[in-house]
DNA sequence: AATGAAAACGCTTGCCG
DNA sequence: CGGCAAGCGTTTTCATT
């Protein structure tokens, strides 16, 4: 898992500030790239008050460190014929490990997200398909995965917003850093 | 809603082009941009077998038509101090409209996604914060929204994958789009 | 009307102060 | 971290189909 990226939860109060590879300027660059992933380095430099070369160096380090994991275009699902979204809770059986189930879920292209969760269910996945018929087909595929027991499907009626840039880590609104 | 995206009219080349504003070549470009949102037009042209100018024109139309809605950098949440994710089901009361509730949810920066759903709950939202203390604070804020009744919180133990490019609309695996 | 080619412009990117 | 310079991609324009 991606836990070792920036070190354990220890906030390291006092002492070496070098431990945090992501400083405040990096956070501003990250926030700008989350809003516009195609912003040029010159643009970013103007936004944060740095030269393009400096921004380039910082972004390269952020990418190498695994902080920035990629850049992706977002698409209107309806426009590409994916009009049905559902959240599916997956109850486990004891016939397979969670890792194997997760790997099998990853093989299904219609499963966009997969979370291992606490509670009665082992996973919650987000599925996006074209029609309710396809949803039925997909649920059948899910249930054929070894280790998958009962499924609990919640149909999404409308997506109000999704994968929004979360700047809670940029300010100290709610993070309560201390 | 966004079904009739008055896009480019009938296309000649590429084979059987119907009235669909998004033809097969567009889908390949979209798929490439979902994988790498910073791909240059020259790169895209090489990928799909088109010139850079043609790709540029097509992408511009896709953006104008609202098919491509944006480009965003993806960040490792742990690296920016957001180590706690939760899925929160929101039960409604009858004191407010769903639109007002959704708007209020949109004011909270830690709420990354918001889905109106069928079933007992009115919404399911994804919340991302730094600590479980912050999660408690956030749930308090959620419950103070008029129209929000009981909440049902599922803590995410690990994110196996998230917001993956869904190419179910690109192939005919499961869409049966016809 | 869409495509491909060419040209001017602007950005990227390595290197040094 | 900033500035410079070389190389490359972008973006407009134009001719072609």
Main pleated-sheet profile of chain A: 4 strands, antiparallel
The run of helices and strands of chain A is HHHEEHEEHE
CATH topology of the domain at 77-156 in chain A: Alpha-Beta Plaits
Taken from the alpha-carbon principal axes, the silhouette of chain A is elongated
Most residues in contact, chain pair and counts: A-B, 85 and 83 residues
Helical segment count of chain A = 5
Average pLDDT for all residues of chain A: 86
Give the tally of β-strands of chain A.
5
Strand order of the largest sheet of chain A: 3-4-2-5
- In terms of quaternary structure, what is this? homodimer
Estimate the strand proportion of chain A.
25-35%
User: What is the C-alpha radius of gyration of chain A, as a whole number of Å?
Assistant: 20 Å
- CATH architecture field of the domain at 77-156 in chain A: 2-Layer Sandwich
The poorly predicted ranges of chain A are 1-18, 172-178
CATH class of the domain at 77-156 in chain A: Alpha Beta
N-end to C-end Cα span of chain A: 25 Å
């Amino acid at each position: 898992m991606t836990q070792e990226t920036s070190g354990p939860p220890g906030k390291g109060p006092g002492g070496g500030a070098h431990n945090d590879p992501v400083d405040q300027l990096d956070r501003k660059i990250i926030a700008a790239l989350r809003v516009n992933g195609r912003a040029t380095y010159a643009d970013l430099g103007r936004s944060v008050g740095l030269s393009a070369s400096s921004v380039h160096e910082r972004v390269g380090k952020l990418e190498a460190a695994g902080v920035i994991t990629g850049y992706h275009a977002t698409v209107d699902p309806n426009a590409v014929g994916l009009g049905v979204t559902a959240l599916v809770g997956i109850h486990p059986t004891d016939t397979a490990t969670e890792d194997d189930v997760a790997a099998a879920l990853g093989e299904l292209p219609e499963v966009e997200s997969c979370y291992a969760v606490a509670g009665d269910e082992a996973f919650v996945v987000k599925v996006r398909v074209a029609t309710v018929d396809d949803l039925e087909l997909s649920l059948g595929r899910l249930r054929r995965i070894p280790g998958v027991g009962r499924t609990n499907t919640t149909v999404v009626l409308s997506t109000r917003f999704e994968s929004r840039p979360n700047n809670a880590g940029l300010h100290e609104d709610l993070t309560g850093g201390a």
